[in-house]
Write the structure tokens for this entry.
Amino acid sequence: MLRELIQGLPGGGRDHPPISESTPTPSIAILGTGFGGLGMAIRLRQAGITTFTIYEKADGVGGTWRDNTYPGAECDVPSHLYSLSFAPKHDWSRHYPEQPEILAYLEDCVERWDLGPHLRLGTEIAAARFDDVADQWVLETTAGEEHVADILVCGLGQLNRPFVPEISGLAEFGGTVFHSARWDHGHDLDGDDVAVIGNGASAVQFVPRIAPVAEHLTIFQRSANWVMPKQNPPFSERTKALFARLPGLDRGYRASIYWRFEARFLMFRRASRFARVVEKAGKAYREKEVADPVLREQLTPDYPIGCKRILAVSDYYATLVRDDVDVVSEPIERITPGGIVTADGQERPVDTIILATGFESTDFLAPVEIVGRDGLKLDEVWHDGAEAYLGITVSGFPNLFMLYGPNTNLGHNSIVFMLERQISYVLQCVQEMVAGGHTSLNVRQSVMDSYNRAVQRRMHQTVWEAGCSSWYKNAAGKVTNNWPTFTVEYWLATRHPWFGAFEDR
Ligand code: NAP
């Protein structure tokens, strides 16, 4: 345990004895090929379980890192922590990984663990129904094929379906429109008047890249965000060689990042004094970068830091002060065939609109239709907001496991760490099923309910319930996405499954 705390914890898992080749293992369907789906597959393989199939609707692996190819896409969690501890990469080019390198890493994982034969690319699962008699999931693809699996692991992520706002006239716009998560690389922005709607984590990364290309750039900002600077120097060849030669050093470095980031949770507590200090630093940074008092006022958030995701970027403010870039905070009223009209009646002509409007984040597992025991529909169970036990299992849906499910998102640390906890938990459940000859694991309703009451009680002590809108909440304002405390607590809660949480098997 001490070793795990010092080294293994930031991503490490329990070492399970591999299952012998002669032991029959359940068939496992994994949906998605992002960090979650591929990580699950690797751990299964490492544990000697090869009876799995990975379904992916796209033609390639990578999940969000395959979809988000906008200029400047990179991760704001350092490379060595934003990668799987059981699939280490020692030669990351930079401190923060860029999208092409993350995608290449995930593709390389497929090669290293020979996952190719398990992959069904271009296969979208439209529905999954639990067969109560056979204790199996019956999957239906959009092409109408059926596949059967004993266990279903959903690694669909929280940010996989772009959100397109309903703005009057958008469909009639005469120019080019695309979403940041579906970047139109065939469209040259050179000489265009470009409008960007939204100013979240995606927008602040590509705006500095496209401003020098476009004729003019207008950012339509609904609410200002907290922005902090982030430098991204390359690793020297010597450092990379050192990490490769001394993997323990790499693990220690990873752990040091984990603990540094973990401490940041203090900022996300309601009325946190630490947050006030960071707000001061954010204000000072804004004042240093933005001399114009009108623009500076526009860029000043009206909510406590952390309520929405804090943006880490060093060239966004510098781009906004360019003469050929405007920030418009007047609400958008409608879109005409040639431009955007704001509430003050002004129409700004534009050639291209880029929607940096985020994702449908609170409809977990959508659009897969999931039907559990006795015809129970998951979207009906989740009518008032998604809930799960440990973000992994839902009562009434036996043998269904989620990776990055409800209340497992973070504002302060690496999602890959959370995924590894979930992957380890699911693996141990599978091993328990094999060892005990169980065909069904269904979490008790009472356990799930009391767990979620505790999660929401803890949530009241966080900044996410402060008065701001964010993708962490559903329409009713319930925080369905975030984990409400330190990730160490999640690690402790998921370290070994408590099988008393499940109905008699
Ligand atoms: P987002 O943070 O949800 O931002 C969406 C933006 O669109 C917000 O500025 C929002 O305004 C605006 N918006 C939405 N609907 C609108 C409407 N009808 N009219 C005008 N504006 C509208 O989405 P995102 O930037 O794609 O980022 C989503 C998440 O992806 C991030 O929080 C992060 O977790 C992840 N991400 C991570 C990285 C990274 O570095 N690791 C990079 C990119 C993305 P309001 O703020 O007023 O709602």
Observations:
- The pocket of NAP is lined by residues 75-76, 159, 165, 167, 197-203, 205, 220, 222-223, 309, 332, 356-359, 469, 471 (CB under 6 Å).
- Residues 415-436 form the longest helix (22 residues).
- The longest strand covers residues 125-131.
- The chain has two domains: 28-161+360-504, 170-231+259-355.
